[in-house]
Amino acid sequence: MNKMDKITIIEPKSIETRSFEIITEILGDRVFPQEQQGIIKRVIHTSADFDYADNLVFGNDAVKAAMKAFQKGCTVYTDTRMAYSGINQTNLAKFNSQKECYIDHPEVAEEAKKRGVTRATVSMEKAAKDEGHKIFAIGNAPTALIALYEMVKEGTLKPDLIIGVPVGFVNVVESKELLMELDVPYIVAKGRKGGSNVAAAIVNAIMLEGLKQA
Amino acid sequence: MNKMDKITIIEPKSIETRSFEIITEILGDRVFPQEQQGIIKRVIHTSADFDYADNLVFGNDAVKAAMKAFQKGCTVYTDTRMAYSGINQTNLAKFNSQKECYIDHPEVAEEAKKRGVTRATVSMEKAAKDEGHKIFAIGNAPTALIALYEMVKEGTLKPDLIIGVPVGFVNVVESKELLMELDVPYIVAKGRKGGSNVAAAIVNAIMLEGLKQA
Question: Mind giving me the DSSP string for A122-145?
Answer without folding.
Answer: HHHHHHHTS-SEEEEEESS-HHHH
